Amino acid sequence: xxxxxxxxxxxxxxxxxILWRLNSTTAETQKQGDEDEEFRVLDIxxxxxxxxxxxxxxxxxxxxxxxxxxxDQNWGNVWPGPRSFHPSSVPLPIRQGYVPKGQAPPGKKxxxxxxxxxxxxxxxxxxxxxxxxxxxxxxTEWPKLLNSEEAIExxxxxxxxxSDYCHASPTIRNPLARIVTMRVKLSDLKLxxxxxxxxxxxxxxxxxxxxxLVTFTADRCPVRKQNLDYVNYLLTACYHESxxxxxxxxxxTLEDMEYYDFDAHPSKKNLVNWFFKSNNxxxxxxxxxxxxxxxxxxxxxxxxxxxxxxxxxxGESAKTxxxxxxxxxxxxxxxxKKVVD
Length: 341
Description:
The chain is 41% helix and 5% strand. The protein is mainly alpha-helical and 341 residues long.
């Protein structure tokens, strides 16, 4: 106000009053706008108006797919490959799950137990037959010469045994499936007497004398292929090691042998000499020829050889002594021993 008084001019006061009035009007307008922007009062007891209720309309639920399936459909088209269980695709009353005694297991719908386990719905007999017909064009015919077990054992002497397991669990792997067993007959291995004896000492109790089978079993590796390679290695190593002749083995004498060798023992020479003398023939055979002489050409000679081997290798017993007595009597043509009660 003092500023306007110092610079007074005619008409200035009037203009000043006008400016003051304009400023005052503007302040009042701003004050009124602030009052309009205040928060509204919350009316808790608000009167509810009429609410229009929604009419629930029932949707048309289509029947389950399994109920519309024809009985003569091609199941291979419905379930062509392995997949999780789907109740609407299987027209069978399948149940799965644990329940207390006296109650029925849960049905197939909304059943998590059926979806956990692997199923074989894609491997039905008709589907398997169709698949076999499809891959038959890639197969070869079975050899006509392999028409018996003897022929198969002759051409394929090594037998490998493995096992596959099917069970209900989250994984299809079974630790027992890694076990591999290999069997081969000792007579199918090309071994001489020395190599055969060494081979039997290497394999130990893996040889069955009754069946003449050598069995190797491997389960130490986690994968089946590794165990298969291991049994192949065992058979190969034992076979080649049995043919290996060490320097100390050449120095072994007849008294150093761990078993009784009838062909290398003087008993074989005495038997051959007796055979020639009993037939009034002269024995001009060398020591090597006598060792290679066929004992089966002597009447009852093979039975006598087996009885002597059994007596010395297994030890004296009532059985071995009786067999030796019978073999000697047959060889010399003596009558059987009579047992008096």
